[in-house]
UniProtKB/TrEMBL annotation:
It comes from Rhizobium esperanzae. GO terms for biological process: transmembrane transport. Belongs to the binding-protein-dependent transport system permease family. It is found in: Cell membrane. The keyword Transmembrane helix applies. Signal peptide: none annotated. Residues 90-303 form the ABC transmembrane type-1 domain. Keywords: Cell membrane, Membrane, Sugar transport, Transmembrane, Transmembrane helix, Transport. This is Multiple sugar transport system permease protein.
Amino acid sequence: MRTPAGAINVERYQGAVAEGRLRRLWNANAPGYLFLLPWLIGFFGLTLGPALISLYLSFTDFDMLQAPRWVGMANYVRIATADPKFSAAMYVTLTYVVFSVPFKLTFALLVAMALNRGLRGLSVYRAIFYLPSLLGGSVAIAVLWRQLFASDGLVNAALSYFGIEGPSWISHPNYSIYTLVALSVWQFGSPMIIFLAGLRQIPQDMYEAASLDGASKFRQFYKITLPLLTPVIFFNAVVQTIDAFKAFTPAFIISGGTGGPINSTLFYTLYLYQEAFGNFRMGYASALAWILVLIIAIFTAFSFLTSRYWVHYDD
């Protein structure tokens, strides 16, 4: 049975209309897609693709010399039941997070409040205080930090001036982790800048009204500054905690890549690195990496769920 000529013309017309619509959409959006192309290549080729590959490798036994061998949940079972170094790395990392993040945010807020008092040359001070955040994660600063806290370093030399004999901070298991905490606190510039921006958004007439009512400086800070800064505090806390979980370079340089002494600086990321590039257990290291992703995701989700009870927005 032959198709009527009129039906063929209608189909051609509809096809031409659809083709013209697609051509107009492409002409309108092509520049945007072209500008996005480098990001799309980077996202799929350098982020999403490797992440999916590492997820697959986490269920395999892979030493980078032979083809991956599927082992199912064996890597995760071993992490949960038969890996004492995993527990040691988690303890060290949680200790680092618990101490470094609160001290860092507290120090950053204090400096931001001092800079918010209308100092002359504010931009110079702001740049100087932000500089450690740019340099703190570098290998050179980690090497410098190791020299400062060595048994014959500058810190012990300063203590000896007051008649105090300091220990070898980086080689003593009771003190080594706190040298890394001090290095983290020293990099307070990034949250300080964000705190300073938040302080600038608080209306000054609120402080003036509180002063007229007889409120002390501490009460003004507790009743005005802190509640209005809670969104900024929340943002800084989440970002800095995630960064603390991912810390690697200082522990690697100060401990020489061993996590010593006695695993006291064995950060989770350092242990992951040892398994991947020291023991060539790439499948096991991939499982460790995905557990870290899960831990960070749980913390972030918990932070957002609890933020409704203490973070105050304009509404």
